[in-house]
Design brief:
The complex is a heterodimer of chains A (297) and B (357).
Chain A: H1 3-34, H2 41-57, H3 63-86, H4 94-116, E1 131-134, E2 137-140, H5 141-163, H6 165-175, H7 177-182, H8 187-213, H9 221-233, H10 238-263, H11 268-283
Antiparallel strand pairs in A: 1-2
Chain B: H1 16-19, H2 26-45, H3 48-73, H4 81-99, H5 103-122, H6 130-150, H7 152-155, E1 161-162, E2 166-168, E3 171-173, H8 176-199, H9 201-211, H10 213-218, H11 223-249, E4 251-252, H12 259-272, H13 277-301, H14 310-314, H15 316-334, H16 338-351
Antiparallel strand pairs in B: 1-4, 2-3
Helix pairs in contact in B: 2-8, 3-8, 3-11, 3-12, 3-13, 4-5, 4-6, 4-11, 5-11, 8-9, 9-11, 12-13, 12-15, 12-16, 13-15, 13-16
The chains are: A mainly alpha (297), B mainly alpha (357).
């Protein structure tokens, strides 16, 4: 058994898993505050990464400026999306809401393919050195940076929800929309804000992943990978999304390891999370941290 | 059934038999029969292109009707219908080549095989619903797709598998003209079956489960049984549609049955109208014609002042996909009840013409 490879894969899994966790958190944020399952989550990453790429390559801005501009763009993008497309869907049956987000996902996926092409593009070099050695393991600097960014986002989320006024308003809306409204919270604003935050934070994750792997339409598949993660953690738990993301990230790498070493089935990296997803839905549909839905007549 | 709300006032039904008819009036029945008769004569007049479109409409229409039974009538969500469609295609080709079963028999058998697979993946439906079910079927989509790429004994792996043309009493249905009749027969048969299913006890149980599952359970409708049955029937329809597709093209490749296909099926029933059999067909026709229209439109653009814009002509494939996404969004926002509803409104408008109220 090749322990060094396994360890390397597990660390890779942790790093990727943290990013899944970040995207999952955005997903849960939107679900909790607006009760919308966002199938277009992956497209936020995609659009964000491409927009940032366009800023850096076409307009030749320095990375920090381009990145900040991307964040502003994505915030506006998320809010506009909510106002134009999702606001009319309030109160519609769940299938319609799901289908609208799926429609958005198809639209933006093909739009980016049309504008930017299908071949992966890479960002200009941001760091001087490629990789650093941590405890004897080679870790790419971009990976290290992505971990730090992911952790910062998580801490930021924690403080935002715990201490800021808007965070409190969002928690109240997630708890009960009518009560929140009667207390003077603008639920409309909260909805728009949660989409804006989700778009911005997802775009950050998209840029980070794009810096490591290059930007291509495979970024949107992260939006699908997030489902196993959030279901495992419980659909309405932010902590669950992080835990689920890390578990799925490690799991797919470990599955890949055992597959390449012993089983030789192939393609386990992509498909293992979905087997896990089915098993969870079968036995524990509310996940590890999700609230059980008790229905009364 | 969904037309109940659109019935003009003063139109009463005095017996259950009248309430349950497929055709509400004699005229509608006559028109339907005439339409089928006209469709039978179509190959004599129309050329291959239109026949291809019709055959496409019929196999997609059968599969979409299955999805509408599941989504529109039972209120379950499936994001894996494309995979079931593909499973039917491979199953029929596999039965034919491995066991030498005649193709005409393979098609229904493939339907039953797909039904079994669908029920297996629908099993979580007994416990979960709504959005969780959507995600479970999403997982099914990826797992089945992966199975196609891997199971060489079943699907031929990455090289795909060949499917023989339909052979009935020594006559080979291998041209567009001859296969057209198979497709037409299958379409009419499956649609009449679908209509009848919805008039039966089981169909009413489906609707009850959709409308309020707790009330349905209190009235003695077994929820788990009907949720599973609905999955089974929907997969059966997908399997039949897929099998027709396989034997029409003569070759099945593992690449085509992606999540995008599942979404297209969902788009068809949403555009047509959830819970409407007539609407399903309208939605399918719309979705089949949409890319063709776009292609014609872009082709005609050459002759206008804009000339040939390379960005548009080169990106036509992406524009088609974008159009599908856009159409889904626009329909859900502006016409959530689909074309069937619009059709009923147009009909009513003319029925009461100058005095609509």
């Amino acid at each position: 058994m090749n322990f060094e490879l396994l360890l390397q894969l597990i660390i890779n899994g942790l790093i990727v898993g943290l990013l899944y966790g970040v995207v999952g958190m955005c997903f849960v944020l939107v679900y909790k505050s607006t009760q919308i399952v966002n199938f277009a989550q992956g497209e936020f990453l995609l659009v964000g990464a491409w927009v940032c790429w366009a800023f850096l390559i076409y307009m030749e801005l320095p990375f920090v400026v381009g990145f900040l501009l991307t964040l502003c763009f994505m915030a506006v993008f998320g809010v506009l999306l909510q106002m134009i497309v999702l606001r009319p869907m309030i109160g519609e049956p769940i299938i319609s809401v799901i289908m609208v987000t799926i429609g958005l996902s198809i639209f933006f996926q093909s739009l980016t393919k049309w504008i930017f092409g299908v071949s992966p593009q890479s960002y200009p070099q941001v760091f001087d050195t490629q990789s650093v050695s941590v405890f004897g393991l080679n870790i790419e600097l971009a990976y290290l940076m992505s971990t730090i960014i992911a952790l910062c986002i998580m801490v930021g989320f924690f403080f935002f929800f715990k201490y800021s006024k808007h965070g409190l308003a969002m928690r109240a809306t997630a708890f009960d929309q009518q009560v929140a409204q009667s207390l003077g919270i603008s639920v409309k604003q909260v909805f728009a804000m949660s989409w804006g935050i989700a778009a911005t934070v997802s775009a950050t994750a998209g840029v980070v992943i794009g810096m490591v792997n290059g930007v291509s339409d495979s970024l949107s598949s992260i939006g699908i990978k997030v489902f196993p993660a959030v279901i495992l953690g419980g659909l309405d738990s932010i902590v669950g999304a992080i835990v689920g993301g890390v578990i799925i990230g490690v799991l797919e790498n470990v599955a890949e390891f055992f597959d390449s070493q012993y089983l030789h089935i192939g393609n386990m990296y992509d498909i293992a999370p979905f087997y896990v997803l089915l098993v969870i839905l079968w036995f524990k549909p509310y996940g590890l941290f999700g609230t059980r839905d008790i229905e009364r007549i | 059934m969904s037309s109940l709300a659109m019935r003009p006032c003063g139109d009463f039904r005095t017996s259950y038999k009248k309430d349950n008819t497929i055709f509400e009036t004699k005229t509608i029945r006559l028109v339907a029969i005439l339409a089928i008769a006209a469709a039978c004569l179509a190959p004599l007049i129309l050329d291959g292109y239109f026949l291809t479109l019709f055959i496409q409409i019929s196999y997609l229409g059968i599969a979409a009707l299955g999805l509408n039974i599941l989504v529109g009538f039972t209120g379950q969500i499936s994001l894996g219908h494309g995979a079931f469609f593909g499973f039917g295609a491979f199953a029929s080709a596999w039965l034919n080549t491995s066991f030498n079963i005649p193709v005409a028999l393979c098609i229904p058998l493939a339907g039953f095989l797909t039904m079994a697979v669908g029920m297996m993946f629908g099993m979580p439906a007994a416990r979960i619903k709504g959005l969780y079910l959507a995600i479970a079927t999403l997982a099914a989509q990826f797992i089945i797709e992966d199975f196609f790429a891997r199971a060489e004994w079943f699907s031929g792996g990455s090289s795909g598998s060949m499917a023989a043309p339909v052979n009935l009493l020594g006559f080979e249905f291998d041209t567009d003209q001859s296969f057209y009749y198979i497709a037409l027969f299958a379409l009419v048969f499956m649609y009449i079956w679908g209509c009848n299913l919805m008039r039966s006890r089981d169909g009413r149980a489906f609707v009850a489960v959709r409308d309020h599952y707790l009330s349905a359970e209190i009235m003695g409708v077994k929820l788990n049984k009907y949720r599973l049955l609905s999955f089974g029937i929907s997969s059966f329809y997908a399997g039949i549609g897929g099998a027709l597709y396989a034997h029409y093209l003569g070759y099945v490749s593992a690449e085509g049955f992606t999540i995008f296909m599942s979404i297209q099926f969902l788009a068809m029933i949403i555009i047509g109208g959830l819970g409407s059999i007539k609407g399903t067909l309208m939605g399918v026709i719309f979705m089949v014609l949409l890319p063709e229209m776009l292609e014609t439109g872009v082709g005609l653009m050459k002759y206008t002042d804009w000339g040939n814009i390379p960005m548009v002509t080169d990106g036509l494939a992406y524009i088609k996909e974008m159009a599908i996404g856009l159409v889904i969004i626009l329909f859900l926002i502006f016409e959530p009840e689909g074309l069937a509803h619009r059709w009923a409104q147009i009909k009513n408008y003319w029925k009461f013409y100058p005095f609509s109220y």
